[in-house]
């Protein structure tokens, strides 16, 4: 009967492991536990009588979406409050930027310093912050104090000249806090700092006639946001970017809105002092007191070994049931407050622990007893396993549903519903994860069409027999989620034969999935530049492709309810169906704009070689920026050459094309087949149209509607003489049955793969 009781105990443990969920009090009874996504544990609190003292009062601003939490009402936005078991720190956003700017005559025009005073609070500046300075020929000095001591320090930023391309937000710590000539330095802040001031001083007059850059900056932030002791760069900048202070600050949010780490403690007395006055003692039962060091008084509380929870609340530290959570014993585990004990059944010896000697059978155990026990225990085990299996199945089903709901919300399902202004997703079909898994043989490697840095595209067949391309992201972060939602919203508004169709999406998986029509013949880039292609583009086909792309862009700019700017037109984003009809794809960075808007002011996004130079300088994207990118694609079709050369000495394709037009030597750059098949006049007209699209001034470029009309006009002039040729080409396409797959571009200047594989930035 011994093993009967043992297996009964095992059964109870299994049952508890499926249903047990320890909950610990977080805040005082009746107090708010959340502000947006931030959990507010006591001694912090929202509202009257919910915090330990005014220093821990949290103001929750519900006018923002999501709500934001602040210390001292405003100024310090709280982003993280660490668990009591891991330390007494919080992270806040605090715009503590020191700025020093000068005009061309050397007169100071802007001057601001950093000043932080926490002396009347329970907070100090944590030692895992850095004072970082960025600029040229500037001295940043720091002064501060704690309760019992003061300190000072500083560092110097140096630059060799204004054309240096180095410079990092993080200064390597293996060279005493600075690297000569990289325009950056940093210094540490001691633990316990309550009052801190930092100043910038210009030193260029000491060894240089003029100041290299108008402004210099200093700020305090979390060292781990900049790589910490491992010296990993979270971002870098060319020093000459400091020529434009406005753009430099807008492009570097870690500088303008750094994260500051604060230590907090209880009161100003140490443990030995406060334990004499139990009425003021904050550590509750099953917890321990630890002095807050760093030259300031105060203490913090932590749950004792074997307990977990909030040590500042009554019954806040609760016993950890190691038997359920860790299963430390071979046989029988008995939990008691703060610890546990393992034991072995009769006929076995040892300490019973997995990490110890375990339980070993005794040689004196009767064979007959073992047989009887084995039979009865086997029956008991089967019953236990059957019940546990059933409970596990119910548990897994509930868990799966919760996971799907969680993934749906995390992957932007609610945001997508909101943006479509409907109770459902409008024309966008929601597909279940199970169907997509079945369509791709559970995302088998044999179904992969292509891979890129951000995702993978699989070929699949839906239950209704439709062949599709399924794009699965590798990672999900806030920026990618925004592009994912944007692409779904944009494509749900578009119905055009030359724009790739979005058939549906799946939001209930760990990463969102997009389902597109399957386009078997790869990208226009591959067709133009892949010398091994079995299909050669004639002049008439190139002209038709150009006209179709222009028609699609004209539709996006002029025919939709709200104009849509694509923002990443390039030959790798033009796909080809089974009849080599082009389809514009990859709308992750596209934007709809109001009818009364003329441009978008955004961070520059796109692909080098296709970017509008005017957009690159102003950060203002207009419909003429798409026109410029189309002009590059048109030049690719005319020349058969890639936009970026393989060597640095060679000029870009656009520069060489424009030079050939200006010198009336266009024939030197044209593709051989274009020169042979196209009439000189019509080829020149297309080249002249491309030249207009590539005008450096956007206002002198034609609209996409004008471009589409012009290309169609040129095509009509070629129709009478090429009807038979086009008929033969069409017949050849109808009879062909190419088994083509999407592959990555062979270009050395761009790491993009097929646009349906991931969003390009």
From TrEMBL:
It is found in: Membrane. GO terms for molecular function: ATP binding; calcium ion binding; polysaccharide binding; protein serine/threonine kinase activity. It is a single-pass type I membrane protein. Residues 319-354 form the EGF-like domain. Residues 1-23 form the signal peptide. Residues 443-714 form the Protein kinase domain. It catalyses: L-seryl-[protein] + ATP = O-phospho-L-seryl-[protein] + ADP + H(+); L-threonyl-[protein] + ATP = O-phospho-L-threonyl-[protein] + ADP + H(+). Keywords: ATP-binding, Disulfide bond, EGF-like domain, Glycoprotein, Kinase, Membrane, Nucleotide-binding, Phosphoprotein, Repeat, Serine/threonine-protein kinase, Signal, Transferase, Transmembrane, Transmembrane helix. GO terms for cellular component: plasma membrane. One of its GO terms (biological process) is cell surface receptor signaling pathway. PROSITE patterns: ASX_HYDROXYL, EGF_3, EGF_CA, PROTEIN_KINASE_DOM, PROTEIN_KINASE_ST. Disulfide bonds join 323-333. Serine/threonine-protein kinase that may function as a signaling receptor of extracellular matrix component. Binding to pectin may have significance in the control of cell expansion, morphogenesis and development. PANTHER family: WALL-ASSOCIATED RECEPTOR KINASE-LIKE 10-RELATED (PTHR27005:SF515), WALL-ASSOCIATED RECEPTOR KINASE-LIKE 21 (PTHR27005). This is Uncharacterized protein.
